[in-house]
Amino acid sequence: MNLKDLQNDWINEFSKPLIIAGPCSAESEAQMMETAQRLKDSGAEVPVFRAGIWKPRTKPNGFEGVGVIGLNWLKKVKDEFGFKTATEVANAHHVYAALEADVDILWIGARSTVNPFTVQEIAVALKGTNKPVLVKNPVNPDLALWIGALERLLGQDVKNLGVIHRGFSSYQKTKYRNLPNWQIALDFKHQFPNIPMFVDPSHICGRRDLLSDVTQEAFNVGYEGAMIESHCNPDAAWSDAAQQITPEVLAEMLGNLQIRNSDISGFDEEMGKHRALISDIDFQLIELLSNRMKISEKIGALKKENNIAIFQPDRWKVIAEYASARAEESGMGKDFIEKVFKAIHEESIEVQNNIMIDK
Length: 359
Description:
Elements (H helix, E strand, L loop, with lengths): L17 E5 L6 H14 L5 E3 L18 H13 L2 E5 L3 H9 L4 E4 L1 H4 L2 H10 L7 E4 L6 H13 L5 E5 L16 H10 L5 E3 L1 H5 L5 H10 L4 E5 L17 H10 L11 H38 L7 H18 L3 H23 L3
Parallel strand pairs: 1-2, 1-8, 2-3, 3-4, 4-5, 5-6, 6-7, 7-8
Helix pairs in contact: 1-2, 1-10, 3-5, 5-6, 11-13, 12-13
């Protein structure tokens, strides 16, 4: 069996979108119970309560989770309020403890997904479980690592799978804690439409004010659910305070989200016309880019003949300024146009470099 053969009927137990919510970290029994009570009272459609029991931290001596005792609090939330429960596991010890505590859904975090040895250890510990296991994207933008983690789980007969898009680390300073890089997640979704995909706006955003927009973007492209951090007193949270919201705010946010219909029947003919036009324009774009790279080849040959360095900072400055100006004139986003021109420029450098080394 391969990943594309999985049915993943487990998600049909829940209404869509499936919302998993609760505090970033379990801090005390009182905090867990109050958060669960308020989630229940808020009217938010949250069937699964999440809490971090073990917390991977970048530096030592920080709060690394309460440990096994927190599993008892999760169980109490389940018994008293009827929630399914979910937590992160990062090694075999975590897996055995979570399974013994009958946690309903387990997830593998981004810092674990990036390490095949860690994923293999977790997969072996989970061997044959029927519990759903969700895999967050690796910290770095590597689609193969993400897929590989799922293949390791399937190799241990773990068949109820899902993935969580939590964004990717970047050295660039942006409004996001972790860049969404939507295309990587959508590439995964294209390859494996049978595997449920959840968005984790809390870790993408790192701040409350962006949560609604990012969650809506995910639902706009057909994600099956979301994992959102909710705390009874977010500002006093022991970890990731800035990205957590109260249960009442969560309920309001969920109530305002629009769930999109994936069925285009009824206007498929009109949609088909628009898509045909896009396909024609895409073909023209490819032809234009091909012609541009042929000119880059000639420039590369000229630079080689005259022993000129490929990268010319002044030329790139002209291109960047032109892209910025055109973005304003066209009404398109400046960041988008700059990304397009940067990609074209990088490919042009590669083309010229191949000329230089006679590829």
